[in-house]
From TrEMBL, chain B:
Membrane topology: Multi-pass membrane protein
Organism, as annotated: uncultured Frankineae bacterium
Name recorded for this polypeptide: Na(+) H(+) antiporter subunit A / Na(+) H(+) antiporter subunit B
InterPro entries: CPA3_antiporter_subunitB, MnhB
Subcellular location: Cell membrane
Gene Ontology CC terms, in alphabetical order: plasma membrane
Family, similarity comment: Belongs to the CPA3 antiporters (TC 2.A.63) subunit B family.
Parts of the chain that traverse the membrane: 12-35, 41-61, 73-96, 116-140
UniProt keywords, alphabetically: Cell membrane, Membrane, Transmembrane, Transmembrane helix
Top-level taxon: Bacteria
Domain spans labelled Na+/H+ antiporter MnhB subunit-related protein: 14-137
Length: 769, 149, 135
């Protein structure tokens, strides 16, 4: 399995270089990757369906316990069929769709292959973190593919919207996955499913994961990115935004539902969001005039349907969901590819301009009609089989009962109506417009569409072909003894579900026939509903984010050095002071001084320091600071540090010289100080800092619990360091690394000085003088 | 010393002579502190600062050119050399299968001086010494010289 | 361990005055404030290391590591800190000098770019590219 992923990656990197030579035929080369995967999956299908999943495990980052765990089980096999099976056909279709002179062809082919690999990894991953990595890779590749036409502002906006919404959801999901992995004690997906953790944390984790799944599968209220993504070339819409990527969220729900559907917030959340999505998508699809957007809203609707079925958490619903997953992948990509052909041959996909194409492109019309009928749920197609199973699952007291069933029924009526609208819009002869001129597409261009469309018919007529696959997935639910799931079939007898199906189709046909009154009604309703437009909400939140960023930047980044320093120091006061007040007390003995002389010197030093702050002339201030320095040197002597005192003395002298150098050029007095009020604020901050530090010194002195490290230094200095001046031995031996760092700082400071004040800058003037 | 310098009325001949006498003494004292530092107060930092003070004294009476004559190298040279020396001393421990900066001791029986103890701390400390001296020299050359204009 | 009240108060004063000067706009005063704060920090390190004691020389007290010896580790830290403060002070003074060369004063002005950003009017997000339904 790793080899297949590597093949995708390798081809993704290679095809951009092959594109200039091969032109659109480069897609035939790239198709090798999904084709090989599909072939491999076919050979393993027997094992997988017999309950022997294929697994592979490779160490990735051993230090972090990350492994490349891959696993092919029935659900994985179903998804691989869509990802690689449909994928292969889409690649073949691309070879006819693009012209030789297409700009960015190699990039497109490479990214599409990369997406195919990422999607394959996503459905095979058996590790939560690995799954997340592939999940985000599909988001990124999707972003690149939607924004393929990078000169159009509409594509750029659509690409950004898709990226923002899906990665934001992905991040939320990552949080959930991490929580889940922590609660379970393992990141292994199969491990978690085998022994699912329980508890309030798990409930929170699942809600977070579901948010990720909802964004990825374009559920309300995150759905607007999917219709907007129709700015991408049609093969992308067919592959990413119908068959594969948007199924990722549904896939994750399907993956987790057997173990977690019983956890409290799962069912209400999934069923509500799924039903709302199904209805909103269907309603909006009925209003579209662009065939691609019609299909996109149809996809939103169907994704909601899938979410309900696969998230409901009963084996019957799961069976229906898996069947619909397959059916939708087939009919929706067929329809998209058909729209691509129409767009390619006529130059438009507006159903108000298309007329008479049914006669001009009979093969295409036939195949697309088949697919649309499958979407509407007309026998004998796979879509009908799936819808029958779905009705069956919720008619007899499934989760949510009658409410959910009513929602599914309404959604299906809308689906039937927009399916009819699609066929009518694309192929019918309309009296209001002239027949659209169209080129005849080459057979190779239409062939993939025919294969996809026909497979829906074949699987519908022979549901036994798909039955083992969906049965194997539904078997991941525990089933009471003696109960058996019904097999997929076209004819179950005169059941209630059949009656409801017939009613659905009739109502859908009615909606289509009454399209003019319906359109007026929708227009009226949309005026009322526009207040809750999710796409506008996206725009508003983006501009709100912009404004918030700007305002916070204006506040946080004021550009004033005193404000910055004051903030840092106040943080010190609050944090350290808070800790001092909160948790410590001075318990040990306090003494006034070690030696009385200490106090005398300290008074002098303190007085000089305070005078420094009050000095008006620069030179006075510098001299006073020198006095402080020498006083501190005396304190060092009293403390028992002759080296320190010596160093302090010398440095103080050199610093004085330094100040004199610079002060010679500066005005003798400090400039007039700022208003009194701001000086008082400064004095307040200063007092607080001083008080906190003084208290901190007293507490820190008491806080020692371990013996000082230097006890050891005193013993080891002579035998190991070869010197009796322990301070020096510490500097050059025990803590030599620190000293090396410190002289490096000195060198850096010196280089800074040399750059700021170039010594040779005035030499030319000197010579000329 | 050029005639123009001699003609400068702000110069004190007494001070100049005194500094000339003291300059080398202070310099040598700095070097002494470097060598003595391992066992007595002193060390690379202190030694370097004392030597630096010697140059400051010299600068005070003769200006930038006096320094240039006393040390005819770019101050960046001791800075770099010092850092390099300290680093190389640390790295040399690797060659002797030690850890970075692990100290070594050598006892040499020299014909005239008798047994001489040398530790790897000395070249390291010399590096520190050079960096500090370089920093002081650089400050004199840049800020000092600039301020002279 | 015993706490030394005199040193604690002195450190507090040095930090307080240092902070006050650090918050000024004149770069020279900022440098001076930093110097005072460094003195405070150095004393703080020493005070945290324990009471005053004999010079930490191996073999100078009986039995080497006696209780009356000052702690050598903070001393070593302070020693390097002093020299580094010198380097930093020199750098800051060079900065002040440069500032004087360029602007004729050594006051730290507010960042012009930051003020400009703060004064910006929030701009509307473009909606133009949003696709619409059939009317």
């Amino acid at each position: 399995m790793l080899a297949l992923l590597a093949l995708h990656l390798g081809l993704a990197l290679a095809v951009p270089f092959a594109a200039p030579r091969l032109g659109p035929r480069v897609f035939l080369l790239a198709a090798a990757a999904p084709a090989a995967t599909a072939g491999w999956a076919a050979t393993r299908a027997g094992d997988v369906l017999d309950g022997r999943p294929v697994t592979s495990s490779t160490a990735w980052v051993p230090g972090l316990g990350l492994t490349l765990d891959l696993r092919l089980d029935p659900l994985g096999l179903l998804m691989v069929t869509l990802v690689s099976g449909v994928g292969t056909l889409v690649f073949l279709y691309c070879a006819g769709y693009f012209s030789a002179g297409q700009r960015g062809l190699g990039r497109f082919a490479g990214v599409l292959t990369g997406f195919s690999g990422a999607m394959l990894g996503l459905v095979l991953a058996d590790d939560l973190l690995l799954l997340y990595v592939f999940w985000e890779l599909t988001s990124v590749t999707s972003w690149l593919l939607i924004g393929f036409d990078d000169e159009s502002p509409q594509s750029r906006r659509a690409a950004q919207q898709a990226l923002l919404v899906t990665t934001l959801g992905g991040l939320v999901m990552l949080l959930g996955l991490l929580l889940l992995a922590q609660e379970a004690g393992t990141a292994s997906l199969s491990g978690i499913l085998a022994d699912p953790p329980r508890g309030p944390t798990v409930a929170i984790a699942l809600v977070l994961v579901l948010v990720g799944a909802f964004t990825k599968s374009a559920q309300v209220p995150f759905h607007p990115w999917l219709p907007a993504a129709m700015a991408a070339p049609t093969p992308v819409s067919a592959y990413l935004h119908a068959a594969a990527m948007v199924k990722a969220g549904v896939y994750l729900v399907a993956r987790l539902a057997p173990a977690f559907a019983v956890v409290a917030p799962w069912r209400p959340l999934v069923l509500t969001v799924g039903l709302a999505t199904m209805l909103v998508g269907g309603w909006r699809a009925l209003r579209q005039s662009d065939l691609k957007r019609l299909l996109a809203f149809g996809t939103v609707s169907q994704l909601g349907f899938l979410m309900v079925l696969l998230g409901a958490g009963t084996p019957e619903a799961a069976l229906a969901g898996a069947t619909l997953l397959l059916a939708h992948g087939l009919f929706k990509s067929t329809l998209f590819l058909a729209v691509g052909v129409i767009d390619h041959e006529t130059g438009t996909r507006d159903l108000r301009e298309l007329s008479g194409l049914g006669r001009r492109l009979p093969v295409l019309a036939a195949v697309a009609t088949l697919a649309a009928l499958s979407m509407a749920g007309v026998p004998p197609l796979l879509g009908f089989v799936a819808k029958e199973a779905a009705y069956e699952a919720f008619l007899h007291g499934g989760p949510g009962g009658a409410v959910v069933f009513a929602g599914l029924f309404l959604g299906s009526v809308l689906t039937a109506a927009y399916s009819a609208r699609f066929v009518w819009g694309a192929f019918a002869s309309k009296p209001s417009c002239v027949a659209t001129p169209a080129h005849t597409p080459s057979p190779g261009f239409v062939a993939p569409v025919v294969v996809l469309g026909a497979s829906g018919l074949v699987l519908g007529l022979l549901p036994g072909l798909a039955d083992p696959l969906v049965q194997a997935y539904a078997a991941s639910y525990p089933l009471e003894a003696g109960r058996e799931l019904e097999h997929l079939a076209l004819w179950h007898g005169l059941t209630a579900a059949l009656g409801w199906s017939a009613l659905t189709l009739a109502a859908g046909a009615g909606l289509f026939l009454l399209r003019e009154p319906v359109r007026r009604g929708q227009r009226g309703a949309s005026r009322v509903l526009s207040a809750v437009d999710a796409d506008r909400a996206y725009d508003l939140s983006l501009s709100w984010l912009d404004r918030a960023a700007q305002r916070s930047t204006a506040v946080v980044q004021s550009g004033s050095l005193p404000v910055y320093l004051g903030t840092v120091l106040l943080t010190l006061v609050v944090l350290t002071g808070g800790a001092l007040v909160g948790g410590t007390s001075i318990s040990g003995d306090l003494q006034l001084w070690d030696r009385p002389l200490q106090a005398v010197v300290a008074v002098v030093v303190a007085a000089a320091a305070v005078a420094t702050a009050r000095a008006h002339r620069r030179f006075t201030a510098v001299l006073l600071v020198g006095a402080v320095g020498y006083g501190v040197a005396v304190l060092f002597v009293l403390q028992g540090g002759p080296d320190l005192a010596l160093t302090q003395f010398l440095v103080e002298t050199l610093t004085l010289v330094l100040f004199v150098f610079v002060l010679r050029r500066l005005p003798s007095s400090f400039p007039r100080s700022t208003p009194r009020r701001s000086q008082l604020v400064r004095a307040g901050v200063a007092t607080a800092v001083g008080a906190v530090v003084a208290a901190g010194v007293l507490v820190a002195g008491q806080a020692r619990t371990a013996p000082p490290a230097s006890q050891d230094y005193l013993d080891r200095a002579l035998p190991e360091g070869g010197g009796s001046n322990v301070v020096n031995v510490v500097l050059v031996d025990f803590r030599g690394f620190d000293t090396l760092g410190e002289i490096t700082v000195l060198v850096v400071a010196a280089l800074g000085i040399a750059t700021l004040v170039p010594a040779g800058r005035r030499r030319p003037q000197e010579q000329s003088r | 010393m050029t005639t123009s310098e001699r003609a400068d009325p702000s110069r004190s001949v007494v001070l100049e002579t005194a500094v000339r006498l003291v300059f080398h003494t202070v310099l040598v004292f700095g070097v002494y502190l470097l060598f003595a530092g391992h066992n007595q107060p002193g060390g690379g930092f202190v030694g370097g600062l004392v030597a630096g003070c010697a140059f400051v004294l010299r600068y005070a009476v003769t200006g930038r050119e006096g320094i240039g004559r006393a040390v005819p190298v770019d101050p960046v040279l001791p800075l770099g050399a010092g850092l390099l020396l300290a680093g190389v001393t640390g790295a040399a421990a690797w060659l002797l299968d030690g850890q970075f900066l692990e100290s070594g001791k050598v006892e040499l029986d020299l014909p005239v001086l008798g047994v001489v103890k040398a530790t790897s701390a000395l070249p390291f400390d010399t590096g520190v010494f050079l960096v500090v001296v370089g920093l002081v020299l650089l400050v004199l050359r840049t800020l000092g010289a600039e301020a002279e204009q | 361990m015993t706490g030394n009240l005199t040193l604690a108060l002195l450190i507090g004063v040095l930090y307080g005055v240092g902070t006050y000067l650090l918050l000024q706009r004149t770069l020279t005063r900022v440098v001076i404030g930093l110097g005072l704060m460094s003195h405070g920090a150095n004393l703080l390190l020493l005070a945290a290391g324990g009471s005053a004691g004999a010079v930490p020389f191996a073999g100078s007290t009986d039995g080497g590591a006696g209780a009356g010896t000052a702690d050598p580790l903070p001393q070593a830290m302070v020693l390097t800190a002093i020299v580094i403060t010198f380097g930093v002070t020199a750098f800051l003074l060079a900065l002040a000098f440069r500032s004087w060369l360029l602007t004729g004063e050594d006051a730290v002005q507010d960042d012009v770019e930051d003020r400009r950003i703060a004064a910006l009017e929030p701009e509307e997000h473009p909606h133009a590219a949003r696709p619409e339904d059939e009317a």
